[in-house]
């Protein structure tokens, strides 16, 4: 799988743990940086990773900022992106299986590197469920996205 990744300065401390892990799991990384702790704006990383996923350049994305919230909000504005801030293994796989989450957002100031690694592994191993109830619910989410919640 091709995985687009982006870190802001607050997410940078998790970079050295997560990039090699993703490759060790057999995936190809598209690295959108940052590669140093100099402050940058998280929406820029969310846009780069989100566009890669929405365009099909990458199958999944991983974003890391301080809390995970900022990148999640920003990436979710991109049509075709289903971003979620996730800080546990269960939600990492369930978010993909049930909700087709395609961009994992993590808080570099919230979780440690080993928990982050476990979450990333669960996220990348998960497969979207085609059970009718999940397909039906995702279609409703798609309709909300299509209409901006106005339909």
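^ Assign residues to that structure.
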């Amino acid at each position: 799988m091709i995985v687009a990744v982006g870190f802001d300065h607050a997410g940078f401390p998790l970079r050295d743990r997560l990039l090699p892990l993703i490759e060790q799991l057999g995936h190809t990384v598209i690295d959108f940086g940052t590669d140093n702790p100099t402050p940058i704006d998280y929406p820029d990383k969310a846009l780069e990773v989100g566009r890669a996923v929405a365009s099909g350049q990458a199958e999944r994305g991983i974003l890391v900022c301080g809390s995970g919230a900022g990148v999640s909000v920003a990436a979710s504005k991109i049509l075709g992106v289903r971003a979620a801030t996730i800080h546990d293994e269960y939600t990492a796989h369930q978010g993909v299986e049930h909700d087709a989450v395609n961009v994992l957002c993590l808080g570099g100031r919230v979780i440690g590197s080993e928990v982050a690694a476990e979450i990333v592994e669960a996220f990348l191993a998960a497969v979207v469920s085609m059970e009718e109830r999940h397909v039906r619910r995702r279609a409703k989410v798609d309709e909300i996205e299509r209409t901006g919640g106005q339909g």
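The chain has six helices and five strands.
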